[in-house]
Structure formats: C-alpha cells, structure tokens
Amino acid sequence: MTWVSLFGAAMRALPLILLLALLPLAAEEHPAPVSKVKAQAKVTPAPLAHPAAPAEPGPDTPKAALAELSAGNARFVAGKRVRTLDTSHDAAMRAALVKGQAPFAVVVTCSDSRVPDALLFDQEAGRLFTIREAGNAPDLQGLASAEYAVEHLGSKVIVVMGHTSCGAVKAVREANGKPLPGNLWALQAGMAGLLESTPQDPNEDAAAHIAHLEEANARRQAQALLDRSAILRDLSSADKISVVPALYNLASGKVQFFKAVAAAAPPQAHH
Q1: Buried-exposed string 90-102: b where 16+ CB fall within 10 A, e elsewhere
Q2: Per-domain residue ranges for the chain?
Q3: Strand partners, 245
Q4: Quick one: average pLDDT of 185-205?
Q5: For 150-168, what is the mean pLDDT?
Q6: Could you tell me the CATH superfamily of domain 62-257?
Q7: pTM for this entry
Q8: What is the CA radius of gyration of the chain?
Q9: Mean predicted confidence (pLDDT) in 68-97
C-alpha cells in the first residue's frame, strides 16, 4: 500500500478517532443519573413510637387507674400526648374493640364542648366510659350507666369532674332559686342544695363564688353517686372502686383530683 492510500485511510478514520476521544469528556460533564431505587433504599425512616398496643389491658386497681389518668393529664398539659396522637394502630384498635370493651375508668363530666375528656386524659378509644351531663350532675340514667361500667365492664375508678367557667353552675347561681325556663329547671334539680351549702362570702366577688360552687358541685355530685347507689357503695367499701371528685381548669388544662368520697355512715338508732 502506498503512502497515498495510507493517508486516505487515516483521513477516513479521523472522525471515529475524534469521537472516541471525546466520549470520556462527555461522561464527566453529564454523569449518569443515580438510580432512584438505590437512593431511596439508603434512607431508613425512624421507627414510629407505639406507646400502647390496641386493646392494651388497663390498670387493675383503683389507685393505678387514678395514676394513669393523672399521668395522661400531665402529658396533655405538657403538650406531649402519645396515646391520642398515635394513629398507626387505629384499624387494629377498631377490630379489637368490636369484640368488647373494658374501660378502666368512668368519667362523669359536663357536656361543655371545652372539656374533651379523652384528650385531656390522653386515652384512646375503649379506655374511658364517659357520662356527660350539663353541670356534671348525673340523672338516673347516668347513675345506671356508672353502675353498668363498674359491675359489667370492670371499671376501677369513677371521676366526677367539674370545670372552671361552668355555664350550668353560673345559671343556677344567677337564678337564685327562681325557676329557669323550659327544661333548664332540671339543672337546678340536679344541683339542689348547692347554693345553700356554699353561700357567698361577703368578702368574695361573683367570680370567686362561682369558683367555689364549681368545686363544691363536683364534690357533692361524687358523694351523691355513692349515696344513691348500693352497687357503688358495696364496691367502694370493698376497695374495688374509688369515686373521686375533680376539677378541670380550662386555662391550664390541669385536672385537680380531690380525696375520694366515702359512703355516708348510717344514722345511729335511738333506743
């Protein structure tokens, strides 16, 4: 082959040589895309915290039940709820509760929309048996509901919880014995004797008097539950349940628990 033919072959191969030389440079300027599958596989999300399994057994003594309510309220006040924020077990919880319920506590509270008992005690479905009546003054149906919860469902504590800024207590106070319109007279019937047992001190204003009435009403309603029910009295005397008055503060979120009530001593017979 002559040098002329060699030169011609080299010229024809020049474009291919140049293309091969430029390929590494192009690869550096435009790197191959990283596989999304591989990139995602490197990220391992932190496991969710599950503070309670669905249908977890509740406390089995009155003291432990009250302690659980107190701890839940402390989490609510601190903005650290766990039970009512964990939604990962909702489906399993519903499935478990279809089979039955075993609430460890009964909460008798006001119908006021600002008193969300499950949230303020940080307890999910199935753990609280709630009875709501204006002024936290249970009628006969409410009393029967409490009896059912402790006798058939195994509840260990009954908390009768009033709250600050209670409209029902305020209405009864302002009526001062005069009948309220419509069926509101039932509020007065449910709180019969409250004003007489807690008169206004000459040195306190209306707001302070209402605050005293709210606490007194919670204590009186708790005592009335026990006094009106032989079932509750027997279980309380056997230390199987406690009936505890309490007061919820709307501003702070804190629940103040008072001393558990005891059955009134029967009057002594005169001979």
Answers
A1: eeebeebeeeebe
A2: 62-257
A3: 160
A4: 95
A5: 98
A6: Carbonic anhydrase (3.40.1050.10)
A7: 0.78
A8: 35
A9: 95
